[in-house]
Structures are given as structure tokens and as C-alpha cells.
Specification:
heterotrimer, A alpha/beta, B alpha/beta, C alpha+beta, B: alpha/beta, Rossmann fold, Ubiquitin-like (UB roll), de novo design (two linked rop proteins), 3 domains, 10 strands, C: alpha+beta, Arc Repressor Mutant, subunit A, Glutaredoxin, 2 domains, 7 helices, 4 strands, 12% strand
Chain lengths: 868, 413, 155
Amino acid sequence: MITVTINGKKITLEKQVTVLEAARSAGIKIPTLCHHETLEAFGGCRLCLVEIEKIPKLQTSCTIYITDGMVVHSETERVVNARKAMLEFLLINHPLDCPYCDKAGECDLQDLAAKYGPTTGRFAEGKRTHPESYDDPVIVRNMERCISCTRCVRMCDKVQGASAISMVNRTSKTFVEPFSGKRYDCEYCGNCLSVCPVGAIMSRMYKHKYRPWYIDKNINTICSYCGVGCSVTAQVKGDSLVRVVPEMGKGLNKGLLCVRGRFGYDYVNSSARLKTPLIRRNGELQQVTWSEAFKYAADRLRDIKERYGSEAIAGIAGGRCANEDIYIFQKFIRGVLGSNNIDSIANFSYAPAQRFFERIFGQGVTANSIQGISNSDGIFVVGGDPTSINPILGLQIRAAYQQGIPVITVGDTPGLKRFATCMLKPNPFTETALLVSLLSELKVKKQFLGGNSSFERLINNISALSMKEVEDICGLPTDNIASAVNMLSNMTNPSIVIGKDILQRTDGHINLLLLSAIMYLINGRVYLLSEFPNEQGLVDMGCLPDMLPGGRPIEIESFKKRYEEIVGLNISSTHGLSLSGIIENAYTGKIKAIQIIGENVLSNIPDSNYVGKAFSNLELLIVQDSLMTETAGLAHVVLPSLSWLERKGSYTNLERRMQFMGKAVEGDGLEDWRIISEISKMLSFDMGYKGLEDILSEIARVSPLHKDITYNDISGDECIWPYKGEPLRHGVSLEGMDVPDIGSLLKKPAKDRVYAVFDKELFHPDSLSRKSAAISSISPEPCSRVNRALADRLSVSEGDYLNISTDAGSIEMAVKIDEDIPENVVMIPNNFEGKGIFNIMQWKLNPVLKCPVLDGNEVKLKKAEARS
Amino acid sequence: MKRALLRNIDNTNSADINEYIKISGYASLLKALEMKPSDVIDEVKTSGLRGRGGAGFPTATKWAFASMDPKFPKYLICNADEGEPGTFKDRPILEKNPHQLIEGMIISAYALSAEYGYIYLRGEYPNACNILNNAIKQAYGKGYLGDNISGKGVRFHLHVHQGAGAYICGEETALIDSLEGKRGQPRIKPPFPVNEGFLSRPTIVNNVETFANIPYIMEIGGEQYAKIGSPQCPGPKLFSVSGHVKTPGVYELPMGTTLREIIYTHCGGIKDDKKLKAVIPGGISTPILPADKIDCPMDFVSMPRYGSMLGSGAVMVFDESTDLVKVCLRAIKFFEHESCGKCTPCREGVGWMRAILKRICDYNGRETDIEHLLEVSENISGNTFCPLGDGAATVVQNFIKHFRGEFESKIKI
Amino acid sequence: MNKTDGLIRDIRAIKEKYQSKRAALLPALYLAQREFGWLSPEALEFVAEALDVPKASIKGTATFYAMFKNKPVGRHLIQLCTNVACMIMGAERLVDLLRDKYGIEPNGTSADGRFSLVIMECIGACDTAPAMLINEDFYDNLNKENIIDILENYK
């Protein structure tokens, strides 16, 4: 125990903290500017100087640690005078343009100057001048206001790990700049502007539109982009949204955001927003009233059900719908329409991977805290770049690396390039051989004997590959693999971060088995990367063809019965079609009607052409969405749903944490659950919900997992797995798991061919961000990436256009040179309408997981004709 | 007194290893390698050697901290960034006697179990850089550097690292940041470099002259050494004398030689036999002394009693014709130019002092300016991150203290 | 391409001296400066690539040090000390002379691109003040006469 006295107050603390922390813990305020609780100490602004007995000079309380018996004074005349002097120094060059500055009202310097500052300035010479920079589409820099606290740079270097800005020059000519001096060339997380204590770095999105005193309401909600589920606050003036900002220290993101969360919220006000229901008449979508639309949809559904039976109807749910929406949706499709053909993109790899792991390790095995990643003693990343798919989770990996924790990556993870201890980049689509090799080496290292359980026997039976074979197939040096194995085997508490790419392979199911075997050997905690804020919700709410809410198999009579009793509807016990089955059956004409809520299937599934044809065959396509999408463009009925920020609800993130979304503004449209209830009413089943509470209380009864859950539980930070519910406890089931014939799987990619690889990039991972003007201004057009050797072979240089074609189609795309890509690969994103990799891929499924596969897409490349 | 640090300096070929060996160079190293490392540290402790960079910290104490730290590898860094205006005492060692520095570093590395060493040499000394690189090459050639020094299984690798024009890098933590390829800004202490320095490893930073003393201590023994010069800070000391003296240059004299002796006995008195007006005794950051205060013994302990400091031993002499307000302005311009920008008072305050001084020099000063200047300097003093800002404040305060009239006469015209 | 092959090789050799890539930054910047004439954005990007250090951080370092050229300079760089010892021995008059004779302002370049002038802080030649460096050549005991003779050797 350490006892210090600050301003006469005795404070006893267990840990040796800084004087500043000790003071703040006791409610004693010491002003600071360069200090920030998420950043390492700097000690530059000198605002926090205090007097400490027995030390002659004043000391910065942010850097000096308490010792037992220390006596500190923070409000003596000497200290206050020093504080005033520091402020006077800062105001030498800081402009007094508060009336014009957007920061006014929440500027730390302004507040301090008001409290301590001189009434008149004594500095007679001119201030430093530096024109405000509008070179960047979303960030404004005003370096006259910069007080060199370096918070932004420390944030960028140490927390974000982007190192995109730096202090330049020295003396009072010091300021902050990105490399170009103009536009940023970075991940655009904007965490720099979050920590700026003055108006030096600010967002352009609300430039001159925002004043803190304009704000009437602060609404807490959850970002709608990815499966992390960052906390943000929507600030509202009257009826309109002013801005969405994070709150430092708050939420699982602790106030950090990525580009999508920070700048992407403006899709809510996009011109693509749907405002009225539409019905296709004479081939064109025409505006109708809600009641017309409900009636039309209900009549058509009834008609199809009567003519073709329930099996001809299917539902597809989206990962951005709230739990309440998708619960109602599955109830409607199952109970009212009588079809178990209900699925979502989650079932392409997220859900099967989770289910696979749960069969071996038990339900909830993927429910791990994101913050826990940096507390593990090793990280194994495979199947995607966490820094672009789930950026805030990615930061945990960067942080871990910076603490000296080994990070091993498999595949293309450009965002971890400077944060990986060992990067394994096998030849395209040869990860299976690499995983086999890692597993067999680990068995040796871990002296694995196997045989205690059926899973161990299975692992035991997976045959090994010689290092030579692996080197040959993967093109990886043996040393590289050996050092990865060494690191893996030394980890005692590792995190395994798995992206979908590794599963969306022809051999994806084998990869899954190999990964689970590795996980078993190194005893790792698994994290499944997730593109959608409520992908886990889709699983937990039963938007699956074979699972009821709470992950209860539909074929088990007791679960089915419980469901029917509470819901008041009878359902079928046969498994429905999965998403790929729905699409294939639509293609062949067996499925006649599909209802989609919140999913742009056409754009988000390869091959887009195939899906388009399948949907065109339908007699009825109902699309509920807040935005006009490619999929909605094919619909017979389009029903505008309320967007994020316009409705309340809950999301379940990839940690299985349930979080509450608040409503900030009114919008055109209805909640998805209301739309469905209205259609249901027309089909003679009145769901009878008055509000969300009714729905949640039903979920709490239907799903044993969500037993007794209330919004009170969800509104806090800590609604984490397994809630108050009952996870399924069952033994390891290896039914259907066969030892793969490794030998037959090992294919070497042909050397002289070029393969297209899906580039899941940061700015536009799926179609939503395209509707954000801000993100589109950062990344206005798609870019393919090839390495220098391939570019030279094709005689293209950066900025030229490439013509990329397959049997399925061709696209043209600007090209960027990236030396980290193998010569036989072209990286292609899927981020613009009609111009993505999904437009040139063949419809091809994994035989077991039934998800579209991304491998083996051989392409022909040539330089595109000159463009203006 | 026989020269210990600048021996052989009159030999035009003194930087050559063979010439150095002729005057029993590297004999101290061979002697040290026969001793236990801890005995070498003890010998240095007995000698009473204090760091020659300016602060006068006991060398053996610093070494003891570093040798106690269990982390490896350890780094040994020579601070050859003498940037303090008026200071050029290390230059003759670097250019004329590089092997004594290298020998000193190897002995120190052996004592401290440091495997890697860097000479952080100021960028302004391109000549010295070539000479040092050549000398290091020669030392490798003779087996005094490398993986198995003199066949004793001792490992030490040494490289020259050129700075690029930043006075602040004379501060040891800024030097380490600079060596790491960063902006050379001082670090928060603790941790001290002896525990977490270069690349977060235990790092010992000593001045050129300090290292050059080591072979001499090994040669004559700590006890003998301790008898040279001032008892509390013994040893030979290099004084670089510039300004208005007849024979400016570097003088090796016992610690404690008075300023008067240096100026009048060794440097031949004031140029053109003018009257002495003032002396800055230890480099520009040390308080200026008026002509009647020059009977002070030049050592770390005595100088504060005379209102100044030994600093780097850079004596700058000003005759009666010198415009000291202009000197003060130039000195402050220097500090402004060299302020690293990290902390508020130094970054903003020093420029403010310059602005006031400039208008006084231009005869546009205001009556309140002297008080104003003092107030700004006091607001800087003691509140900065590192001593650079303090140095600037000291200059202003002491120039005004001793020569207020000169400032006033420029204002009251 | 060929121009930078040597530079890459030299930077690689420097990296060997340190246990951290970034520690090789200052020497690498010196080499790049020699090769590119000044630390142009290209030069900085080159070093960033060679050392695998973020380019913005490299810019931060490059702009911190007075001896790194962050803008193009003339054929010959005069680095003249005007600090106290040189000042009291007449360095300021030399600055005036350079202005009159060659039309160079401090931190500027002569119209013909022949000379650039940088005012240096102390270069450690106080006993033989005033002093200067031209490129890497050192000259001291300067006066109004000999400085012109010296400069005339640099065309």
C-alpha cells in the first residue's frame, strides 16, 4: 500500500501510479493537455506541474510516480502561476479564432484559458501562420492551432499502428503532417482527431455545422458496420443527425473507431434511401402506399404457398438487421409461411465454423472477449486480415505485437505487415498443405500421442507431409514453417483468429478440421472474424434452416415443441434449404418466392451473375431494405425499412456480447419486424407485438440461451455469453467427420497462370459503404493489385487500367503495384457496383459447407484500352 | 604537466594506430583484460573520475548501475556530439588521438560486458568521422575489436554514427532516440538509460573525454589519478578557449586551474591587450562571469560557488569592446533554433525572449522589457522537460544580472 | 534504376551495424541525400522502403535535423557558423559579403544555383573562428578576403 497526501488529502493506493492518476482517483483535478489515458505519457505540455515536498523543482504529475509518504500540492500560488505561464506560452502561437473554430465549447485549451489565462496577451510579435489544409476529403488540419501535444501522433503510432502522421520540424515550427503534407495516405481511422485537445485536426463532415451547444440529444448506439460492435454516440439537433462520434474510453472499443465507424455513418442520409414502398408493375417499380404493399405481398405469398406449397418459399436475412427483426422473420417464414428455407450469409462460413468448433469444444467456444487478444501470449491469424475486416479487433493484435507477443499470420494480411513476427504466405490456395504441415510438426513438438478421445484419434490419423513436399507446394522455406511451429508450440494461452477466406475454399471443410486440430493441440481461444454487426445474432435467433433460436436443432422434438407452444404456430421438423440451396433452387425454378430483409445478396455473393439469374426466375421477390440496392432493383415488392439510428434494437457481436442500439432520429419506413407483422396480419396471423419489449420477452422464453433476458441487461456493457441462459451441453460429436485423404488434396497452382484473389479491403468490405459519401470520397474507385513483375509482364503501370476476364465475365479496374503479392495473383476487391470480383467468379460450392468458394479463379489479364 | 589526453598530438601522424602503439597505446587495454571487469570499475571508482560532458556525474557510479542490470545485450555509447557553443575540446581527441578514445571504450565495454558500441559523432565533424572510421578499421585489424579481442574471448563491436545537426542530441536520452532513428527528443526519466536505453537495453553513455581518461587511469592507477588537480574532481581536463584571447585553442590542464590562469598564463591574455569584460566559463549555457570573478578554480565543485558552472570547460572570452546584448541575442537565437519543440516553455518561451532581445538590440525596446524578459525567463526556468530551456533562461538572467546597464542603455536612447 | 542499386546496397550494409532497422535511419538518410541531392519525397520513400519504416515517421525524423536538406540546394552548400565565437570574430560581415557578392540570402540559393547558404550553429572551430563547411570541406580563420578565394574554387 502506498499513501500519498495531495492538497492535504490522504490517498492510499495499492499500485504505484502517477501523481496525476492518484489525484484523479481522489477527485482532485489537475489540468492536462498532452496527457491522454489511452496513450503513453509524454510530459510535454507542462500544464500538470505540481509541487512535491522535498523536490525543489515543480514536477509533471503525469510522469512522476507516487512513493509512500509523498506530499503533493497542486493548487499553491507557485503551481497556479506556472500553469498560467504555460498557458500564456501556448497562446503565443495559438490563434484566438475561437468564434470561428469548430472546437470552441469543447476545447481543452479554451477551457483552461478561460480558467487561468491572462486577460490580455503580452506577446507583441506576430503569430505563426499556416494555411488551413483542405487537401483531404474528410480531415481538416489547422496547424496554427496545433499545440504540439503529439496526442494524435502517439495515437497513430502506438495505438492505431498506422504511423501515417508525424511531428515535423522542430522549435515552434513543429506541427503535424501526413507524409504528403496534403492528403492522408492511411487507414482513415480518424482516431487522431478524437484525441486532439484543440481544433487542429478535425472532421470535415461537420465542419461549421457543429457546435456542442447545438446538441439536444446524445444517443448511445452500436456501429452498424462489422461484427465488433463498437460503441458510438449519435448527436442530434432537433430532428437531424449532426454527427456520430465515439466516446473515449467507452465500449469494448474504448473510444477507438475505424474509418467505417467514424466516417461511414452518412449512408443514413444517402440519396439511395428508400422512402416509400414500391411494387413492380409493367416491369417497373412504382410507388404505392404501405397498405397496398402489405396487401400485395401477402396476396402473392398466399398465392404461391397455395399453388406450390410452403417449400417453394424462402427467406434470407441480413447481418445488419436487429435481433428482434430476424427473430420475427424466422418465426414468420417458419410458422406463418411454413417453410424452414430460412438462411443468411452467416451460414456460408461463420455459422458452420462455429458449429464445427462447438461440436468439439462445446457451445460458446467462440465467445471470447476481443480485449483478451492482447492478453494472450501468442496470436495465430489465418484466413483474412483482421485489420480490414474487424479493424478494432485488428488493433488488439497490433497492440499485442508491440508488447512483444508473437504474431503468426497465414496468407495476405497487409495490415499486419509491420506487426507480424512470422508471416507465412503460401502459394495461392495452398493453405491446406501448410496447415497439415503445421499440425504434423506440432504433434511432434507437443509429443502428441493421441488416443484418449475420438477427436484425438482423429487427429492422430491425419497423415503427415514431408517438409520437402510442403515447401514445394506452398513455396515456403522450411525454416519459415519451423519457426512458426516453434512459436506456436511455446504458446500457452494463444488466440486463434480465423477469417472466412480459409473456409471459402474447395477444401474449406478440411481446413476447418485442421484448424480445430491445431486449436486442440495449442489450446487456443478462437475468434471468428465477422463482417456484419449481427452475424452472430443470425445464428442465435435461429435464422438457419436447421436450428431454432438458441442454437437448438429443429429435429429434436422437445425443442420444436417448446417453440411451437410459445410461438403459437406449428412448424416443420425437416431441415430447410441453406442459402446456396435457396439460390440454386431459385435458379432451377423450384423456389418461387423469396423474402429478403436487409441483405444485398446480389452484390455480396459470388457469382453475382448466377444469383441475378436465379432471382430473375422468381415469381415473387420481396426485399425489405433501407437502401436501394442491386437486389432491391430486381424485386417485385420493395419495402423501405428504417435504417440504423432510426430504430431501437439489439445486436450480438462476434464475442457474443449483446448490445443495445439506440434511436437517434426519425426516418422513412418501418422496422423490419413491423413490416413482417403487418404482412403476417394480412395472412391471418396477428403477431400482436406492441413493441420491442414484447419481442424480447418472447425471445427470452423461446431461446433457452436468452433465458430471462431484458433490455436492462442489454443496455449495459456486460451482456456477455452465456447471458443468464443455458448453453447446450453435449459431448463431442464427430459424426460425419472423416479423416481427409491429405494426399489427394495437395495441388500445386500452375506457375504460368494468374489467379484472382478476393481483396476484402478496409474501405468497402461490402456494399454498404458505397452509400457513404465520406467513404466514397476516400476511396472513390476500386483498384486491383499486382506485383511489379506481373505489371511489367502486362506492360501496365500504376494508374493504368487492367482488363480482367474469366469465362463468367470481364471487368476493368485501375491497377496498383504491391510488392507483397505473389506474381501469379491479382487482388480484386468487390466494392463497386458491377465491378467486383464477384462479377467474374463462377458459381461453385464447397461440397460440405455449401458455401461459394473463392479459390481457383484463373483470370486472363491485359492492359485495358486508354481511358479518359 | 605531462599531457595524458592529448599526448602525441604534435606528431602529424598521431591518429595512426602504430604511432599510438609506439607510445604504449592499447597497453592499458591488455592490462585491463587481465583484470576482472568489476576490478576495472573499482579502479575507475578509486580514480574519482567524473563525466566530462558537463554534468560531472561520477563515472563509476553510472557504470555500477548499468553493470547491475541483468538485461543483455548492453550498449556503450560515446557522446561525441559536442554542440555546446564554444566547445571544441573533444575535437583534438577525435581527430588527433582517436585510438585513446577507442581504447577507452573497449576497456569500458569489457568492464560493463557491453557487446556493441557506437560513437555518436556530431554531423558537423565530417573530418573526424573519416579519421574515426579509419582508426576503428585499424583497431579491428589489430584484433582490439571484434568477436575475440586480443584472443581473450571478449566481444565488442564499435561503429561511428553521425548525428545530423541537433544540439539537443547532446542530452543522453535524446541522443539515444536519435540513434534509434527518431526525432532526437529527450525521454522521460526514469527509466534511466543505464536500465533502459538504446533499444530498451542497458546503455552507458559517456563523453569522449571521459572515455579518453580511462586508458590513462588504467595506466597510472586510480590512486595516482586521484591526486591530479582538484581533490573532489580530479584528473586532467581539456579547456577549449575562444574569443578575445591571444592564443585560443584546447588546453589540457589539471582540474581546478583558475580561469585567470587559463586566460592570462596559458592563452597569453586578452587579444590586442584590451581589457577583459566578461567570460563564459563552461560553454554558452553556463552563467557569464564579469571580469572581476575570474579567480575561480575551474572544476565541477568550485564553480557553483562563484556563480557559474564548469560545464564543458569551454571558455569564451569577451573584451571591453564586445556588445554583450548582441551576444545574448545570438545565444538565445541558438537556443531557439535548437529547441526540440517537445515542451511548451522552451518551444514558445525561448522564441519570445528572442523577440524581446531583438527589439532591444534594434533600439526598439520598451521600458518594461528587461523586467518582462526576466519574467519570461523565470517562467521557463525549472519548468522545462530538459535543461536546454533552463540554459536559455540562465543566459538571459545572468547577462542581465551582471550587465543590466548595457541592456538599459539600448532601451533608453 | 541503376542509380539506386548502389544506394540499396549501401543501406543494406548499414543495417548490419544495428539490431534495429530504424536505427540505420540517420546514416541511410545521409546516403539518400547524397544520391538524390536532397531529401525529396522520392528519397524519403526510397529509404522508407529500404528500411521498412513508415514514411511519415521518416519525414518526422528528416525534418528534425538541421543538416538534412528538406529542400533542393545549390551545387555547393555553404554552412557558415555565426554563433557567438564566430560572430564576435566577424562572421556576420561574411554573411553580408555573401549577399552582396553572390546574392545569397541565409537559407537561400544563388540565382545561378551555384551556392546555397545555411547559417550554422557552432561547428566547433571557435579557436579559429569564423569557420564554415563547404559541402564536407572545412575552412576556418575566415575573413573578407580569403572567403572569396575559397569560394572561387567551387564552380
